[in-house]
Amino acid sequence: MNKSYKIKILGTEYEVDIHSVEDNIARLTVNEVEFEVEVEGFTTNPTRMSTKPIVKTDTMQSETPVVKRPVASNSGYVLKSPLPGIIIDIPVKEGDSVKAGQVMVILEAMKMENNIEIDRDGIIAQIGPKKGDAVQEGDLLIKLK
Questions:
Q1: Residues whose CB falls within 8 Å of the CB of residue 8, separated by 6 or more in sequence, listed in order
Q2: Which of 143, 144, 105 is nearest to 122 (CA)?
Q3: Which of 11, 56, 64, 74 shows the greatest Cβ crowding within 10 Å of its Cβ?
Q4: Domain coordinates of the chain in residue numbers?
């Protein structure tokens, strides 16, 4: 199963690709960010299917949510902003060697600080924004060599 949809929430358009649904767990990508979500009242067993599924994602317990990116190759990899916001901090600099899971940017969005992590090892070739800059969803944050 691989279905693609364009949805609009409060005026913002999102590209949603549903990769698979097993029981009540859906694996999907929203604007290039992978999620695993629980769909209440839905199952792949047709005798239990609900007519109005409610999507519920696990809530983060941390004060600072972690946004992870999908995995791919390193060469020329670009880490893009998953959401619009203001750059609070960039704890790395060009030329730094970085490891998968390391925080690259701290982004304030909707009055919450979000740690934007890199999902692969590499060397930073370019940092797009500076501290205090406003970024939009999809803007370049970090480019690896």
A1: 14
A2: 144
A3: 74
A4: 3-56, 66-144
Instruction: Kindly report the number of other CB atoms within 10 A of residue 18's CB atom.
Output: 15
Q: List the one residue out of 35, 65, 66, 67 whose CA is nearest residue 137.
A: 67
Whole-number Å distance between alpha carbons of 4 and 109: 26
Do 92 and 128 touch, CB atoms closer than 8 A?
A: no
Confidence band (pLDDT; 50, 70, 90) for 74?
low
Q: Which fold has domain 66-144?
A: OB fold (Dihydrolipoamide Acetyltransferase, E2P) (2.40.50)
Residue type, 58: D
pLDDT band at 136 (very low <50, low <70, confident <90, very high): very high
Lowest mean pLDDT among 35-44, 92-101, 119-128: 35-44
